[in-house]
Design a protein that fits this description.
This protein has 298 residues and is of the alpha/beta class. The protein contains 14 helices and eight strands. 47% of the residues lie in helices and 13% in strands. Helix 12 crosses helix 13. It is globular, with a radius of gyration of 19 Å. The two termini are 24 Å apart.
């Protein structure tokens, strides 16, 4: 596969155990956020990161966990956004990044603006919010406090709130030709196939990201863990007759044109072995991907 596996920590019951299993399997990237595991994910990762300096880490800014609200007030985070649980004002970003560095015990390799579309319906308002966020992240990156930044979204691209081209243009406006906008993260799976279909037709987010030189982190490749159990024998055979249901599901995200890393949340060595089996196979051909898309009616 051209794409590689990364360890996601969303919905992990035991973040440390999941990260150890991933690193033991050879995974070299872990993705997290301040609000994961009820706000404990970053601190839980620190012992693993301390022991494994070769492992890179990405975190996020935006969502404020409940037990961080008082600290947010003390830091002067704007009340409205803070009390909504999601804040992308520059003081909030600076505050969250300082806490993330302390909890992780290192400078994050990437920081994603987390679901900037959250609670917003006006594209102009979102553009203003992203401008301020990018300005802060460029400043922090210039100071060496993060390695680079990106945008992680669930529905911002599919809903038309923004495009990859608009994000890249904004980064160039804010940071110039040597800006630090490096990556995007969004769902790619058997239930999020429209972006794959667009790429096979030569357009859409995956193509725009590739042309802009951005890394693409595919999130939720197993559909929250529900897809392997929903696979029929016929669909598994169509994707790869030699694959397990989980491998068949993963192979679609791993084979999507333009995907750099597929983020998988798994806590057992057996699950990681199964996933690595999928990652070791040749990518599905465009024709095979098109057949899958046709069968699922996207």
């Amino acid at each position: 596969m051209s794409a590689r596996l990364g360890a996601g920590t969303y919905r992990c019951r035991d973040v440390s155990q999941s990260a150890v299993a991933a690193v033991d399997a050879g995974v070299t990237w872990v993705d997290t956020a301040p609000n994961y595991a009820s706000g404990t994910a970053e601190a839980a990762l620190r012992p693993v990161l301390d022991a494994c300096p070769q492992v890179r880490v990405s975190t996020k800014v935006g969502f404020v966990p409940d037990f961080d609200r008082q600290a947010a007030r003390d830091a002067g985070v704007p009340p409205y956004e803070r009390d909504q649980g999601h804040c992308l004002a520059r003081p909030c970003i600076a505050w969250q990044l300082a806490r993330s560095r302390a909890r992780l015990g290192r400078v994050p390799d990437l920081v994603f603006v987390h679901n900037p579309e959250h609670g917003r319906t006006d594209r102009a308002d979102l553009s203003r919010t992203l401008t301020g966020a990018f300005e802060e992240l460029e400043s922090v990156a210039d100071a060496g406090k993060i390695g680079g930044y990106g945008v992680a979204t669930w529905a911002g691209l599919s809903s038309g709130m923004f495009t990859i081209s608009e994000l890249t243009a904004l980064a160039e406006t804010v940071g110039g030709p040597h800006h630090c906008f490096r990556a995007v993260q969004f769902p790619v799976s058997l239930i999020q196939l429209a972006v794959v279909a667009d790429a096979l037709d030569g357009g859409g987010a995956l193509v725009e990201a590739r042309e802009a030189g951005l890394d693409v982190f595919a999130s939720a490749p197993l559909g929250g863990g529900e897809l392997p159990g929903a696979m029929t024998e016929e669909l598994v055979r169509l994707i790869d007759p030699a694959a397990s249901p989980a491998q068949a599901v993963l192979s679609v995200a791993l084979s999507a044109p333009g995907v750099s890393r597929v983020l998988l949340s798994s806590s057992t060595p057996a699950h990681w072995a199964d996933a690595l089996g999928a990652a070791a196979c040749e990518p599905l051909s465009p024709d095979r991907l098109r057949k899958v898309i046709d069968v699922l009616g996207t």
